[in-house]
Design brief:
- The chain has about 450 residues and is α/β, with parallel strands linked by helices.
- It has three domains: about 60 residues; about 260 residues, Type I PLP-dependent aspartate aminotransferase-like (Major domain) (Aspartate Aminotransferase, domain 2, 3-Layer(aba) Sandwich), CATH 3.40.640.10; about 100 residues, Aspartate Aminotransferase, domain 1 (Alpha-Beta Complex), CATH 3.90.1150.
- It contains 13 helices and eleven strands.
- It has a seven-stranded mixed sheet, with helices on both faces. Strands 8-9-11-10 form a four-stranded antiparallel sheet.
- β2, α7 and β3 form a beta-alpha-beta unit.
- α1 runs parallel beside α2 and α5 crosses α7.
- The longest helix is centred in the C-terminal third of the chain and has 35 residues.
- The site of pyridoxal-5'-phosphate has 13 residues, from α5.
Length: about 450
């Protein structure tokens, strides 16, 4: 691109990308919810192509068959949020501005965005003021960061210098988890030196909630110091651990209480739904995913802690060329990352555009549409809703057992009207429906119910 004679190539590439993305966005509500494998050219080009705009179009053309229309309104797989318009605009600006949000000195604007967003998120969710925050790739790294802060905090209190002396030979920390925790907890703990067989597992109830009575029995038997990992939003059922009781128990035991709230956090933005999380504000740390219920683009996880000094000590790097700026927010000091994109901008843009009531409406709509799914599906003979639908998640079983359920899920996925995944829940195969997208309307849910009904009829008539 050395020989620039036409329009600036960045502008040309940008215009080509917008031109290519526009029909996708304009049509995403109507696209079939299917995607297939793509094959890209396997020969590395020997030199530059002639025209960046043409290259953008070729790239999009090659990838199109494999692009899943998951930003659309009838994609109910995993827990897949869409992208709200202000969040999409933020993604574009982040790309064009190309700010490195490692240090305030590199981008005063994005450092300020992170500061304000951290305060707004805590305020919106009924959490205390003065929390430390890190903007990370997702809830996996949010859990990791929170648990790294916990590890530092507890070992420091035990007189151990973790940063100097490492984990080997350190005072043991007991980690207490629920039986229905997300696999990201195990993964984060593994990265931090805690193996699966070292975890103390508290049983869960039939909705996947940690059994608080069992936790109360367990805590006096475990050695201090301890971390308790609770969950706000089971990835299958959407259920939320009894936070009030768990907070009391953890506090009485002197344990660090961490909450994996990747699925359930945004419920706290609604006065109607917040009671489900009552007591979570007394935790020590929280892991959130903005790219789920809040509908920002990927990758957007948030970690919050009530122990800023321990948080920072766990994740801050020091080097001679890094300026110390006590007055400014250096984003990388609060995350395991160095160079970072301006991912907080999407969260900020959504909160600034929607405000408190707009976010409350968004999450209430997700939960109301999940309830609509449950009611509609439960009316079909042979179809059983397998969970209490208290949030945005619905689990469905079909008469005839696991094989039939697998067949219905496969037929729905092939049909292209809507996309639902499968899971195992309480020892049975289930269809798993997650309503997480701002675009989804009651008509989309009704259409999806009809499609599930059609596939169920086809599956059991075979
Ligand atoms: C999605 C999820 C995670 C992992 O989040 P990522 O954003 O995929 O890293 C962790 N915990 C729970 C409960 C989740 O639903």
């Amino acid at each position: 691109m050395a020989d620039v004679t036409g329009p600036d190539p960045s502008v040309a590439a940008f215009a080509a990308a917008v031109a290519t993305a526009t029909p996708f966005l304009a049509g995403v509500r109507g696209l079939p919810t299917t995607a297939g494998p793509v094959e890209l050219p396997r020969t590395l080009p020997e030199g530059p192509g002639p025209d960046v705009a043409a290259a953008v179009h070729h790239l999009a053309r090659d990838l199109a068959p494999g692009i899943m229309p998951s930003p659309g309104p009838r994609y109910f797989g995993f827990v897949t949020g869409g992208t709200l318009p202000p969040a999409l605009a933020a993604e574009v600006l982040v790309g064009a501005w190309d700010q490195n949000v490692a240090l305030a000195a590199m981008s005063p604007a994005l450092a300020e965005v992170e500061s304000v967003t951290a305060e707004w998120v805590a305020d919106l969710l009924g959490l205390p003021a003065g929390l430390s925050a890190g903007f990370v790739t997702g809830a996996t790294m949010a859990n990791w960061t929170a648990l790294a802060a916990a590890r530092h905090d507890l070992l420091t209190a035990a007189g151990w210098d973790l940063e100097a002396d490492g984990m080997a030979g350190s005072p043991p920390i007991t980690v207490v988890v629920g039986a229905e925790r997300h696999s990201a907890i195990d993964l984060s703990l593994r990265y931090l030196g805690f193996g699966r067989s070292q975890l103390v597992v508290v049983p869960a109830d039939d909705q996947g909630r940690m059994d608080a009575a069992a936790l109360a029995h367990t805590m006096p038997t475990v050695a201090a110091p301890a971390i308790v990992c609770a969950q706000a939003g089971n990835v299958n059922s959407g259920s939320i651990d009894p936070m009030d009781t768990i907070s009391d128990i953890a506090r009485a035991a002197g344990a660090w209480l961490h909450v994996d709230a990747a699925v359930g956090a945004w419920l706290a933005a609604s006065t109607r739904l917040r009671p489900q999380l009552a007591g979570w504000e007394r935790a020590d740390s929280w892991a959130l995913d903005a790219h789920k219920g809040l509908n920002t683009g990927y990758d957007s996880g948030i970690v919050l802690t009530a122990h800023p000094a321990s948080h920072r000590a766990a994740t801050q790097a020091t080097a001679a060329y890094l300026p110390a700026s006590a007055d400014h927010r250096d984003g990388s000091a609060w995350t395991p990352e160095g160079s970072r994109r301006g991912r907080a901008l999407g969260v900020y843009a959504v909160l600034r555009q929607l405000g408190r009531s707009g976010v409350a409406d968004l999450v209430e709509r997700q939960c109301d549409l999940a309830a609509r799914f449950a009611e509609g599906l439960a009316r079909i003979p042979g179809v059983t809703v397998a969970n209490e639908v208290t949030a945005n998640q619905v689990l469905v079983r079909f008469a005839g057992g696991d094989a039939v359920t697998h067949r219905v899920v496969a037929l729905v996925q092939e049909g292209g009207v809507c996309w639902m995944g499968g899971t195992r829940w309480r020892d049975a195969a289930c269809m798993r429906i997650s309503v997480s997208n701002w675009m989804t309307t009651p008509a989309d849910v009704d259409r999806a119910i009809d499609e599930v009904s059609r596939c169920w009829a086809e599956a059991h008539s075979r």
